Amino acid sequence: MLGIGSDHGGYHLKQAIMRHLEERGVAYRDYGTYSDASCDYPDYGRAVALAVANGECDNGIIICGTGIGISITANKVPGIRAALCGDCFSAEATRSHNDANILALGARVVGEGLALKIVDTFLDTPFSNDERHIRRIRKIEG
Ligand code: RB5
Hints:
Layout: E1 2-6, H1 11-24, E2 28-30, H2 41-53, E3 59-64, H3 68-74, E4 82-84, H4 88-96, E5 102-106, H5 112-124, H6 131-141
Parallel strand pairs: 1-2, 1-3, 3-5, 4-5
């Protein structure tokens, strides 16, 4: 199960990503927001991060205008490695090297076509399981 959430700035991209997930047959749960009315990105970033951290979801996608505020919020939750990606190289590397469990996107930064490619790259790239990356990820948690 994939958890997805956004603020108003990411609402329309979230709708497009959910349609894309349906086409791919990826099961997801929508944690809001449910309209483009102004709202607070921490509420939605935290909801998805908590769902991933407590095992309700396996991974997540979070979106705000820049992707910055919502990723900062998600990364406050222990066990969360949220990666803000604006290109496919970063999306591949953060799965392979960081075992990122949440993808953050900036809807005012990347167009829909690129965003969907980034989503596909994130979902299709496994963690490398290399010892050095496991060691570094452990050090993130302190
Ligand atoms: C909302 O206007 C905007 O601040 C938000 O979507 C995000 O970019 C914050 O980091």
